[in-house]
Structure formats: structure tokens, C-alpha cells
Amino acid sequence: MQQDQYDPLNGLPPETDAFVQADDLQDMLGETMGKMKLLKDQLQLRLHLASMDAHDLRHDLVDSVEHLGQRFQDLSKVFEGSIEKGQVQLHLGLMDLKQRWDVTKEEAQKALTVLSEDKQKAIQYFQEVRLQAKLGGLEAKELAEEGQEDLAKKKNEVTSQLSQALKRINGSVSDFLHQLG
Q1: Please, what is the Cα angle at 93 between 95 and 74, to 5 degrees?
Q2: What's the pLDDT at 167?
């Protein structure tokens, strides 16, 4: 390699002296120290600002949590009120339902009573009809028997009259035949 070519891996540029002056080194150290102090001040400022932001954020979070807690209490009261209203409505509904049930039960009992009375009337009516039918049957049988007796008497009378009429006809035919003969 030539001496006028700069190789960054092998050291300082060629115009740099191999020996740095102590004053230059002290200046460089002072400059570095100044930069480090500036960096420290900037870090402290940023940390202070971040701390203030965190403090503000903490207050915002606390306020939000308090606000949410208050809102929760408000909603809880509304919910409790709704529950109480619901319980009142449920109680009123149950009372109305019980009243309607009692009325319905009373009406059903009346209907069952009427039905039972009607059933008894129907049974009594059918028993009367059955009794009348039996009586009618007995009367019909009695009439039939009487009719048979009357018929038998009438048959005997007709038979007797027929027999007498035949005897007279026979007697008349015999007399006529005698007269002819």
C-alpha cells in the first residue's frame, strides 16, 4: 500500500499526526463531556416530562375510574329501581292472575254445578221416559191380551153365527130340495 492512500481499517487518515497533542485530546474530552452533559440534561428533561405525563395520566386514570365507579353506582341504582319496579309489576301481575283464576274457578264451579244439575235432570227424564215406556208396554200387552180375548169372543160369536147361518142355509137348501123333489 502506498502512504498517500487512506485505509480506514488500518488507522488514522494520513494528514493526522501519529502523535496527538495533549491539548487536542483534552479538547476532545471536554467536547465529549459537554455532549454527555447535554445528553444527561436532555434525558432528565425527558424523564421529567414523562413523569409529568405519567402523573397527568395517573390523574386521568383515577378520574376515569372514579367516573366509572360513579356511573356504575348510578346504573346500579337504576337497576335496583328497575328490579323493584319489576318486582312490583310481578306482584301486581300475580295478584291479577290470582283474581282471574278465582273468577275462572268460580265460573267453572257454576258451570259444573249446572252441568251436574242438568245431568241429574237428564237422568231423571230418561228414567221417567223408561218408566213410561214400560207402562206403555204393559198397557199395550194388556190391550193386546184384551184384544185377543175380544177377538176370541168375536171369533166364537162369528163362528157361532156362521154355524147357525150354515144350519139355516142347509135347512133352506134341504127344504128347497124337498119342494122340488
Answers
A1: 125
A2: 85
